[in-house]
Structure formats: C-alpha cells, structure tokens
Design goal:
CATH superfamily: Alpha/Beta hydrolase fold, catalytic domain
CATH architecture: 3-Layer(aba) Sandwich
Structural class: alpha/beta
Number of domains: 1
Distance between the termini: 27 Å
CATH topology: Rossmann fold
Shape: globular
Number of helices: 11
Helix content: 25-40%
Length: about 280
C-alpha cells in the first residue's frame, strides 16, 4: 500500500535555462520517462512510479511551464516541449527511453517520437491530446480573455474541476489531493497554462493545424505503442484512441471502463500491471 511516506524526494536540474523538478526512482533496467497532462505535475504519477521502479529506472518530470519547474514566457508548442524532453535526456545522459504521456504529455511524446525517432524505445499514450478536434468545453472556454481569472486556486474550485475530469471522484484518495493541492496555487501557474492552451486550442476545439499535423504523421512512428483510454473520458473522447490505432504501425489498445481522463490515477493497480506487461514484451 503506497502512502504519503512514500513520496519520492524532489530533485532539480538545469535543462538549458529551465530549472526543472523531477522524481527519479529505480536503478536497474531500461529508462521510462513519465509526462503529465497540461497544468499537471509529477504528483499525477504518485501511484505508478514506485511500482514501475521495481523493474526500471523511472523519471517523472515537471514539464517546462508546469509544477515546480520554471515557467518562462513561451508558446509551449509541441515542438518546444519535445525539445525540452530531449534536452532533459541529454542533460542526464539518457540515450534511449520509453515515454509515457497523459493528455498533453501524450502529444509531446508523439512529437518527440517524430523528431527524435532514434531516442524512443516504446511509447505509451494515455488519453492523448492531439488526435482530433474534440475537447472539453471548459478548456475551450479557458482560452478566452480573462477566463482563467474565474478559476481561482481554492479547494472548492479545484475539487469541482477534478470531478469533471474523472469518472468516480470517490476513487481518488484524499492523501493524493493533499499532495496535489499546493501545485494549483503556485505563482505564475495560470499564465503559463494560458499560453499553453491558446497555442493549441481555441473556442471551437483543438486547432486543426495542431491535430492534423500529428495525425498525418502517425504512420511514421515505428516504436511499439500502447494506447490507453478511459471509456468515459470527459476531456478527450475515447474515439480518439481509434484514430491512433488506425495509423500507428505497431500498437495495442486498452480501454478502461468506468474511467475518466486519468486511468493511471483512477485504476493504478490495473494500469501498472498493464504497463509492466507491455514493457516486458
């Protein structure tokens, strides 16, 4: 049973000019890098990293602009994020890795696979962004001027938003909420998140220039890929899993029923077993 006493120690490294927070557990086997959703942080992998680290060397990153990493003024385009991942790997002398990406982290992992195919071993996409136009209305509204001012960092609003992202709120442990809440009130978090959203979305959905470019190039990715989705994902529809499956040359698909946008958080034991089985083959 994983508890708050199992929180990995925060580590920091300069990735170029970006002071970057990360967790690192495991000292054997191949390398796995965990990439969170837009506005997320390493805490989203709290129930996964310890289990995966029993077999692999695992890194969870606060992506540039998120968590406790630096938040420069930038477009946060997928290419910018992919370059950041590469620079993180180069800084730590990681030659090859499996990327595990949720939502925006999934799209960044896809972009990385296209830009740096020789550095990717396997790919795991969890409710990945970038596979179609459809996306939750709340995120589309957040791109409007001053919209994020209506999402203050108090517990009531945070609870409301998280309830809109998962299928069964009661499955999310109170202990996890305690370690995640402080991230929402970090200085400049909203500004960086707004820059990220406006680069990729507008009021009508994901920008065509963003998702069409990804979908057209999926066939170029030769890395074995595991596509994971929550059947009731309210952020990105499960139909996007089929888009990925139709184009990726070497893929497996697993749909979690009674599950929202975070299968790794909503069903961590089943998720961990699924990932370990995929990585072992």
């Amino acid at each position: 049973m994983i508890t708050l006493t199992d929180i990995p120690p925060d580590q920091y490294i300069k990735v170029g000019e970006i002071n970057t927070r990360y967790w690192n557990l495991g000292n054997q086997g191949k390398t796995i890098i965990l990439l969170h959703c837009a506005g997320g942080s390493v805490e989203f992998w709290f129930y996964n990293i310890q289990v995966l680290a029993q077999h692999y060397r695992v890194y969870a990153i606060d992506m540039v602009g998120s968590g406790l990493s630096d938040k420069p003024s930038a477009t946060y385009s997928l290419s910018y994020q992919a370059e950041f991942i590469k620079n993180f790997m180069d800084t730590l002398n990681i030659k090859l890795a499996t990327l595990v990406g949720n939502s925006m982290g999934g799209a960044a992992a896809i972009q990385f696979s296209l830009m740096f195919p020789n550095k990717i071993e396997k790919l795991i996409l969890i409710g990945s962004f970038g596979l179609g136009k459809e996306i939750n209305l709340i995120l589309r509204l957040a791109t409007l001027p001053l919209a994020l001012r209506f999402f203050p960092a108090n517990r009531e609003k945070i609870d409301f938003l998280l309830r809109k992202e998962v299928y069964n709120w009661k499955l999310i442990p109170q202990e996890w909420k305690k370690i995640r809440y402080p991230i929402y009130s970090l200085p400049h978090r909203e500004k960086a998140l707004l820059q990220l959203l406006r680069t990729h979305l507008n009021l009508f959905g994901v920008r065509k220039a963003v998702f069409s470019k990804i979908v057209k190039q999926l066939g170029k990715i030769t890395a074995p890929t595991l596509i994971i989705w929550g059947k009731q994902d309210p952020i990105l529809p499960v139909s996007h899993a089929a888009v990925a499956a139709e184009s990726l040359p070497d893929n497996r698909v697993h749909i979690f029923d009674n599950c929202g946008h975070y299968p790794h958080l909503e069903f961590p034991d089943k998720f961990n077993s699924l990932v370990l089985d995929f990585l072992a083959k």
